[in-house]
């Protein structure tokens, strides 16, 4: 039985590892992450608050019971002055006019709920971006650890070889010192990369609630691309970035909040019906009528300047919401332009990094052969090993930074979940367009991105100072010596 349970656990573990993808990680994160769940509950609470405010349009029915300690009785000749010791009243009140206060409050809370919805979208986008970044960095640092292990192994092998030669009396002590120092550096690099991997694994676990499996599938959603220019990408971000959309809804909500406070300057008109349950219908034996239907008006003539102060407070909050929207536009523009520029830059870098990696790999093999016949020193060999380690590391760094730049661009545009085809099933469809009269003047004003820098290599070379004759002569002489060595059958490349 225990063996069967163990087999089932292993099967589930392997199944999990096979099915685990970036998409599944993001799906789980936006469903379970505490930050997202807190934003979700805030949104649901905002919906309920709006529904509560709509209750102001409906009649209110209350049952009021009173018990009195009557000290003196009225004269027997005037029965209608009798005050009952117990009185139960059924009161129905219907608001007729309240200065548009209830209407403004419902509208305010409607936009407050939309604000909470877009804040939830922003939380999901942010968490998805964090998950994508952690996923990519786990892939990156796993490769870095593998590169560092290879680098350490080569340094250890070379150190052991030099140590044997020194012990045998055919090697130099300085080579042993150089090898020892480089071996220590290789070991330190391995420890650093391992620690970085542990740190990003902990970050991934914090976001998703799970440890990553041993094998992470490669990411492919970046091939969908971005807009052709930075201005077009920025325009898309202004229309769909949830932080901007939330800030715009907050402005409209603040406008309605001002109207709610201004409603206190209007009279309040209510229709009220009252029925005494324990008094005769005719009102006999009581000074109070049994059934009353009345229209009441309450007009606030003076309230100690409280209403004026509350209106001023709401106006300042409206100004605050407008500045927060401006800040959201500025931050989105900065994030989008940097991410978009990184895409263009890293795309160009990637081919050069690959070329560097391949060239150093060929040089590394050539140096090993030359070292074996005495044409390269140990220091040359160690230098090329370190350069090869750096070249592989830089290529992987650039490749995964490019993927991250795509993800950052999509996040700035509020598109990363759609690019991943990930959605929460318990969220309603909310219209993104904000085209009503109440939205006039709320959009981001500056949709022009800074001009991206273009490198002109020909112009750089025209401005460059020529090399000194000594350098060109030394290079020419070294090339001649290389040719001579090559003619003797040695390896020169």
Care to describe what's here?
There is one protein chain. The chain has 493 residues and is α+β, with helices and mostly antiparallel strands. The protein has a domain at 21-58 and 100-266 and 309-420: Outer membrane efflux proteins (OEP). The chain is 65% helix and 8% strand. It has helices at residues 2-19, 22-32, 34-54, 101-167, 173-208, 230-240, 242-262, 306-372, 378-412, 416-420, 457-463, 469-487, and strands spanning 60-67, 86-97, 268-276, 291-298. Helix 3 packs antiparallel against helix 4 (101-167), helix 4 packs antiparallel against helix 7 and helix 7 runs antiparallel to helix 8.
The average pLDDT is 85
Biggest pleated sheet: 4 strands, antiparallel
Order of helices and strands: HHHEEHHHHEEHHHHH
Strand content is 5-15%
Radius of gyration: 38 Å
Order of neighbouring strands in the sheet with most strands: 1-2-3-4
Structural class: alpha+beta
CATH architecture term of the domain at 21-58 and 100-266 and 309-420: Up-down Bundle
CATH class of the domain at 21-58 and 100-266 and 309-420: Mainly Alpha
> What is the overall shape?
elongated
Poorly predicted runs of 5 or more residues? 1-18, 482-493
Helix content: 55-70%
User: Kindly, what is the distance between the CA atoms of the first and last residues, rounded to a whole number of angstroms?
Assistant: 64 Å
The CATH superfamily of the domain at 21-58 and 100-266 and 309-420 appears as Outer membrane efflux proteins (OEP)
Strands, count: 4
Output the number of helix runs.
12
CATH topology of the domain at 21-58 and 100-266 and 309-420: Outer membrane efflux proteins (OEP)
């Amino acid at each position: 039985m225990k063996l069967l349970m163990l087999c089932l656990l292993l099967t589930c573990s392997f199944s999990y590892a096979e099915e685990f993808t970036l998409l599944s990680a993001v799906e789980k994160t936006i469903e379970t992450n505490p930050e997202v769940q807190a934003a979700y509950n805030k949104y649901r609470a905002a919906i309920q608050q709006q529904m509560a405010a709509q209750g102001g349009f409906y009649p209110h029915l209350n049952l009021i019971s009173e018990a009195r300690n009557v000290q003196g009785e009225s004269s027997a000749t005037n029965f209608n002055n009798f005050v009952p010791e117990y009185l139960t009243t059924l009161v129905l009140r219907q608001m007729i006019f309240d200065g548009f206060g209830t209407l403004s409050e419902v509208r305010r809370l409607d936009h407050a709920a939309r604000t909470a919805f877009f804040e939830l979208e922003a939380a999901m986008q942010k968490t998805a971006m964090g998950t994508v970044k952690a996923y990519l960095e786990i892939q990156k640092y796993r490769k870095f650890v593998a590169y560092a292990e290879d680098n350490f192994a080569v340094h250890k092998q070379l150190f052991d070889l030099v140590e044997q030669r020194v012990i045998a009396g055919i090697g130099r002590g300085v080579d042993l010192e150089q090898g020892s120092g480089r071996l220590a550096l290789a070991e330190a690099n391995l420890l650093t990369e391992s620690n970085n991997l542990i740190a990003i694994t902990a970050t991934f676990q914090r976001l998703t609630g799970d440890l990553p499996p041993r094998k992470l599938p490669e990411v492919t959603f970046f091939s969908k691309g971005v807009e052709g220019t930075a201005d077009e990408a920025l325009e898309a971000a202004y229309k769909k970035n949830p932080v901007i959309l939330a800030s715009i809804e907050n402005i409209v909500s603040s406008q309605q909040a001002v109207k709610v406070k201004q409603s206190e300057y209007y009279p309040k008109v209510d229709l009220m019906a009252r029925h005494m349950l324990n008094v005769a219908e005719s009102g006999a034996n009581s000074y109070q009528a049994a059934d009353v239907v009345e229209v009441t008006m309450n007009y606030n003539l003076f309230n100690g300047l409280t209403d004026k102060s509350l209106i001023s407070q709401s106006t300042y909050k409206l100004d605050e919401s407008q500045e927060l929207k401006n800040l959201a536009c500025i931050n989105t523009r900065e994030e989008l332009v940097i991410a978009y520029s990184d895409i263009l830059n890293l795309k160009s870098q990637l081919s050069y990094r690959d070329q560097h990696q391949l060239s150093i790999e060929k040089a590394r093999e050539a140096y090993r052969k030359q070292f074996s016949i005495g044409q390269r020193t140990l220091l040359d060999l160690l230098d090329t090993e370190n350069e090869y380690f750096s070249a592989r590391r830089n290529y992987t760094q650039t490749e995964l930074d490019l993927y991250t730049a795509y993800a950052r661009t999509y996040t700035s545009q509020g598109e990363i979940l759609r690019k991943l085809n990930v959605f929460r099933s318990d969220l309603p469809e909310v219209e993104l367009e904000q085209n009503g009269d109440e939205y006039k003047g709320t959009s981001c004003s500056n949709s022009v991105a800074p001009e991206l820098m273009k490198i002109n290599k020909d112009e750089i070379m025209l401005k460059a100072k020529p090399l000194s004759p000594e350098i060109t002569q030394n290079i020419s002489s070294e090339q001649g010596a290389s040719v001579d060595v090559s003619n003797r059958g040695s390896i020169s490349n």
